[in-house]
Amino acid sequence: MPKTTTILAFTVAVMVSKSASANSGYLSKLPTKTLREKLNFELISAQAKLDKPLDAKAHINNAITLSTSQGHRRIYLSQRAPLKNLLLDFATDHPNVYIEQLAAAVRNSLKSNKQSHGIIQENPLTKRELDILRRLTTGLPITQIAASLHISNNTIKTHLKNVYRKLEVDSRDSAVAKGKELLLL
């Protein structure tokens, strides 16, 4: 096993997520001297117990208790979605100022991840729509793009409406920008 605390915590987190049966062996190797190490231990333990919500919430409670005095947020925001959802569930049962602020930050984090990754996953662009989106970057008029694809002007307009709707944009330039942002271009 690796020697540095951060690498060890990461390695254990990966092992825990892959193998539910070997959790206790990996978790026992985590150091718990500093506050950060204790937080990592509790969050990784909660991740390991996601199939047992009461146990997982107990670990979340321990982590919250540890982090309340220091106001830690980043460690929670860097967790994966299932653990963030568990934290939100925990927050509804245990309201206080710190937990509500943390839950709001986690909610925003989940929303932004969904917006940046979920748009295309929910409504993927067709092959033709991707082709049209790529050709929008050339700056050619729509009529020339339609002619080069051997389709009518009305057909390309329909494809463009679908592209704009799926990317949640309203112009050619914003469609190209969003396509680059989502690594479609």
UniProtKB/TrEMBL annotation:
GO biological process: regulation of DNA-templated transcription
Alphabetical list of Gene3D superfamilies matching this protein: Winged helix-like DNA-binding domain superfamily/Winged helix DNA-binding domain
Pfam families: GerE
Domain HTH luxR-type: 118-183
Cited SUPFAM superfamilies: C-terminal effector domain of the bipartite response regulators
GO molecular-function terms, A-Z: DNA binding
Keywords: DNA-binding, Transcription, Transcription regulation
InterPro entries noted in UniProt: Sig_transdc_resp-reg_C-effctor, Tscrpt_reg_LuxR_C, WH-like_DNA-bd_sf
Keyword DNA-binding: yes
PANTHER family: DNA-BINDING TRANSCRIPTIONAL ACTIVATOR DEVR_DOSR
Entry protein name: Unannotated protein
Source species of the chain: freshwater metagenome
